[in-house]
Amino acid sequence: MPASQKARKLAQLSGQCDLERASFAVAISDISCDGCSAEAECDWGEDCEFVHLRINDSIDVNGRVLRHDGKRADIRFYGQIHPAVIDQLAEA
Fold it and tell me: What is the pLDDT of residues 29-46, one digit of tens each?
């Protein structure tokens, strides 16, 4: 598997997460073409399957929460972020 398709552990990226019932800031890490991990300042709650993320104030992507535990969630994107964009984020 090419390096750009593996999860990249980054110094946390800033993000904004929009759920149906709430919107809050998140710290994004372990990002790959397919998904990421995100940590919020609050608990994710029960109804958080669909999410809209704005990553690093430049990338918008929709996804779903695969699992969450308190403030941390693993998110799978609908579609993918291009590997070159993941590489750019890693360099930032």
Answer: 889 999 999 999 888 877
